[in-house]
Amino acid sequence: MLYSIKKPYFYRFSLALILGIFLISGLWFEMRSHEIRGLVIEDIEKYKSNIDNIIEEKSPPTKVYLRKAIGNLEVIGMSTTDTYEVYFHIPVPFNEQIPILIEVESPELIDYRFLHLNPPNVIIAARMNQAPSAPLNWTAWVFVRENTYSDLPSFVPLPSLEQLPDSVKKWLVATDCAQINDVLVQQTADSICDTTTNLMKLADDICDFCQQIPGQLPHYPYAFDAVYTLKWGNSCTGHAHAGAALFRANGIPARTLLNIPTWFGFCDMHWIIDYYVPAYGWVRMETVLGQNPCLPETEVVTFACNPEDEFPMFFPCAIDGCWHTSDPVFGMWQPDWGGAHRAYNILTIPGSTEEIEYAHSLTDSVFNYYSNYFGINLTLAQQSLLETALDYQASALVNIQAGNLGGYIEDMQQALNNYKNIDPAPITTIFFDDFESGQNGWTHGGDQDEWELGVPTYGPTQTHSGENCWGVDLDNTYENYADCWLLSPPIDLNNYTCAYLSFWVWNWVEDVYGYVYDALWIEITTDGMTFYPLCSKMGGVNDDPEIPDVGGWSMVALDLTKYVDNTVQIRFHFNSDGHDVQAGSYIDDVHVYGRYGTTGIITHDEQIPTKTISLNNMPNPFSRLTSINYGLNMDSRVVLKVYSCTGQLITTLVNDDQKCGMHNIPWDGYNSKGEKVSSGIYFLNMEVFSQDGKTKEITKKIIKIN
């Protein structure tokens, strides 16, 4: 077998070395514990006094902030299939902030739904028509509860491992973005900590240190991990990873946060961190500007990274993010999110603490239902409830834009009541295999095929769960010129309203900044012969001999709703070129899940007869473009107009004879004179004059937001 290994073997952590590191870490934490127990009495009393003051002087929220965030993405190039999916980040429910409504627009948009990752993260999966290129824009309105951090203590002892809650300990691990076991990271962390026993002083010192890191990328291949940053400098991404690594190396849980700042113009995305303070909670830190704490109203969070997110598959240069498409032909960096995002301060609303806390909790509940039910197939009765709930959400948004928090609460309560009445079937497991009970119908083949099931002894030091996983080679590197696959048994998606796929992957392949040479990607088939792509090519650990490698398991989630009403098979496809080889691709815990119920997706342009006359639009509310869909139960003359809330005619969209079936027309928010209309409530009015002489009229409320 012809192969070479890019890194010397000592770069690959053996099980013995990993155990040794854990032992050393345990000793280090024990030493920290002795330091804390050895604090002078005055320090202990000072800490207790601070905690007492926090309890007595807790500063409750007295303000609500309304924020608007936008993303102007673009898909460049032609897909290999008639339709494809685009995955991208939006604001997520995270501590003080909760999204109110999300709006997605594109001339090629078919539909979209929310894809829930590990909490609190949610992304959008948008289904698009094939086109040479396509703009894809989203707008989010976000409720932010005030947090001034005025109750943040000035002194907190550095904790031991035992003093941390189990729920936060996972943010102490080494990842490919934050290599805390590297000598440079350890030395820098020790130097910053020095002899301090105060976590709050350590936080200030880490913040000051990160602010001084040069904003440059002089070394190629570019990477955005902690070690690259400490050696040569970096963008905000590297600043955040360095900050998280320095906290973790000192025994303090820390995580990276993707966000859109309100204080900047258009940007790719911005990275900051938050760190855990015992007996207090998480505190945000701006590692570029040197702000500690960083106030929540200044930045809209779009991704709160779990440790598994710091082994990036779609950006194997230490960019923790989930932008990608279902078609590998687009390559990395699609959709194009460069300079695409911006956030705005809209207004500040005063209120009582009770009112603000209730509004925050209510918004969180509504978003949970909204993000789980929107975009899935529902019965006509359920769809009617969903549309009513969306109307109340839109009305609530108008109220909060006007500074009316009471009206906002009333409308959101009505939205919640309607969502609760939808009551679709719960999410259930359709298929799951953790590979602990044999091959179970999985097959494999192809050129240089070495897919095998068992205990890995070369790449990962352990599986994601249990003892077994599938890998391209469990005890050595993969082969050059491989083109091999692993195929699941049949999975029945018939009679499901939505379906999703998740799996865990450990990936160490040949890649470099911007390109994956030896790639893993996922495909699906409904007939066992024709396969359709489901995701972009996945890379893994950054290939640079000057950067330490840390492999780990990462979770990938994909939308399969397009394939409901079919029996499918999932295929993991691996391909390598004739150059460097690495440990390869490993798969564990494959899970297909969804909701059982009425199915049958209808695209906007399918001329399918309908038993009733219908009128809907998406999104609602909208800012730039809304897609109006209407159905006719027979050939008819249609007159579709837009009126203001005072009854003034705004524009006529349709006045024509049309065939039986589903129809679609966009409205861009302009009147018949070509003038952009103002924000507010408008009404779609459709009159249908059927060939049998009957006339039917439907009116629907629509909300325009500028």
Automatic annotation (TrEMBL):
A Pfam family matched in the record: FlgD_ig
Keyword terms: Membrane, Transmembrane, Transmembrane helix
Domain of life per record: Bacteria
Protein's name according to its UniProt entry: Transglutaminase-like domain-containing protein
Domain Transglutaminase-like, chain residue ranges per copy: 201-286
Membrane-crossing residue ranges in chain numbering: 9-29
SUPFAM superfamilies given in the database record: Concanavalin A-like lectins/glucanases, Cysteine proteinases
NCBIfam families noted in UniProt: choice_anch_J
Organism of this sequence: candidate division TA06 bacterium DG_78
Sequence ranges assigned to domain FlgD/Vpr Ig-like in this UniProt record: 636-688
